[in-house]
Amino acid sequence: MLAVHFGAGNIGRGFIGSLLSQSGYEVMFVDINDEVVRLLKEKQEYRVIIADENRQEQLIRNVSAVNSQTEREKLIDYITKAHLITTAVGPHILPAIATILAEGLQKRITINKTPLHIIACENMIGGSDVLKSHVFAKISETDKPLFETYYGFLNCAVDRIVPNQKNDDPLSVVVEPFFEWVIEKQNIIGDIPPIQGAHFVDDLKPYIERKLFTVNTGHAIASYLGYYKKWKTIQEAMNDGEIRSDVEKALHESGAVLVKKYGWNENEHQSYIQKIIQRFLNPSISDEVVRVARSPIRKLGANDRLVGPATQYYDLFGQVPLGLVKGIAALLLFDYENDDEAVALQKTIQETGVEGALYQYSQLEKDHPLVIAIKDQWQHLK
Ligand SMILES: NC(=O)C1=CN([C@@H]2O[C@H](COP(=O)(O)OP(=O)(O)OC[C@H]3O[C@@H](n4cnc5c(N)ncnc54)[C@H](O)[C@@H]3O)[C@@H](O)[C@H]2O)C=CC1
Ligand SMILES: O=P(O)(O)OC[C@H]1O[C@](O)(CO)[C@@H](O)[C@@H]1O
Fold first, then answer.
1. pLDDT digits (tens, 9 = 90+) for 236-282
2. With b meaning 16 or more CB within 10 Å and e meaning fewer, what string describes 333-354?
3. Side by side, which strands form the sheet with 45-50?
4. CB neighbours of residue 120 within 10 Å
5. Ligand 1 centre distance from Cα of residue 373 (Å)
6. I need a surface site. Which of 13, 66, 258, 368 has the fewest CB within 10 A?
7. Residue 352 Cα, ligand 2 centroid: separation in angstroms?
8. Does any ligand 2 atom lie closer than 6 A to the CB of residue 217?
9. How far does residue 376's CA lie from ligand 1's centre (Å)?
10. What is the arithmetic mean of pLDDT over 87-103?
11. Distance from the CA of 56 to the center of ligand 1, in angstroms?
12. How far apart are CA 101 and CA 334, in angstroms?
């Protein structure tokens, strides 16, 4: 079985590629990083190191790689033969990979009429639907029904903290012990070969919202407040009592939304929150705040980890969630100069104010009570 996986980065090697290899797939990574591609081709294996006191190592075998910029024909050929396609490139890269993916899928339909599943493993709601829409924008009207018949785009939620790597061996990846890969069954065509450790569900929404509005909400707030208080790592930030209590406050707010929407047991959700906080504190991992804070414009999105739960909280309870508001205000102060989105965001704030930025990136009306509270908090922190 062949899996073609776009993105041989932290999550690609440290999570998706390793589970696929352990499930018996030959994993063909696709990347534009020449050095990683060269090393994967040469070594055909790499190590995953579990970040806990035992530092157990897993040898991930039966892998190789292809460069999507310089080896297009080879990649198209792999797509025609693949039994599964996955991605972990980042939401902003999905449009870029859609062109070659569409080309490969078009060729495949002429020579291989077996169903194929495509799973975008990105931190976003409906990632595979988004990838599908980019692919469908590249194909003819006549191909669309064929694509619907043979290609199942499955949405999923992926959860594993994989920090930026600083290892002597450039292919090895240090990962946290915990992982969760939840895949929605809805668009499966026929059967899908088993994937070790993945969990298939009928309705992904509660799972992706629980993950995005807890793990990613808490992580984002720790990163933006950590940056504001000049901490370098998430672990340092979470050991700052004030930040930890701000994170907990925001997670109780997003948790209140989830518990009300899905009728979950409140105590069980509180223990889920506490487990997440322990994961952030993992002393065996050193995770830079600027990694977790990356792409603040994406993270300001109306349905993303901060504004998503904040607007839902306001709509459900008629009150402004002050913990989430503080996190959003801290995001608006994230001015890290090596992050293009942080630079663009600061420019937008200078030109149009906090209200303009929240209107442009979060679709919040200028007189929305959340906007007023975020601006107050932003002025207070500034
Ligand atoms: N690192 C983590 O802990 C987690 C990350 N995610 C999600 O996984 C995705 C990837 O994140 P990371 O692995 O952390 O990022 P990363 O930056 O480590 O990996 C992304 C990889 O994609 C490659 N890439 C960029 N453009 C490409 C293109 N056009 N074609 C093929 N490859 C391309 C890059 O060279 C890089 O190797 C993101 O959506 C992220 O939100 C989800 C859960 C956990
Ligand atoms: O990958 P993103 O969406 O930029 O955000 C970083 C977040 O994703 C993770 O990499 C994994 O869920 C977390 O470490 C962090 O919450």
1. 999 999 999 999 999 999 999 999 999 999 999 999 999 999 999 99
2. bbebeebebbeebbebbeeeeb
3. 57-61, 45-50, 173-175
4. 28
5. 34
6. 368
7. 28
8. no
9. 35
10. 97
11. 24
12. 35
- Closest-CA residue, ligand 2 atom 7, reads 292
* Contact (Cβ atoms closer than 8 angstroms) between residue 107 and residue 138: no
Set out the domains of the chain in order of their start, with CATH numbers: 2-203 (3.40.50.720), 206-381 (1.10.1040.10)
The DSSP annotation for 253-267 comes to: HHHHHHHHHHT--HH
Nearest CA to ligand 2 atom 6: 292
Helix (H, G, I), strand (E, B) or coil at 86: strand
4 marked ligand binding residue: yes
Residue in the structure block whose two tokens are 């039966």: 62
Distances, alpha carbon 306 to alpha carbons 110, 158, 239, 271, in Å: 44, 18, 22, 21
Supply the pTM of this predicted model: 0.95
Is residue 17 a known part of a binding site?
no
* 348 in contact with ligand 2, CB cutoff 6 A: no
| Single-letter code of the amino acid located at 290 | V
In the structure, which protein residues have their CB atom closer than 6 angstroms to any atom of ligand 1?
A: 6-12, 30-33, 68, 88-91, 93, 96-97, 122-123, 158, 160-162
Query: Pairing state of beta strands 180-184 and 156-159?
Result: antiparallel
Distance 203 CA to ligand 2 centre (A): 22
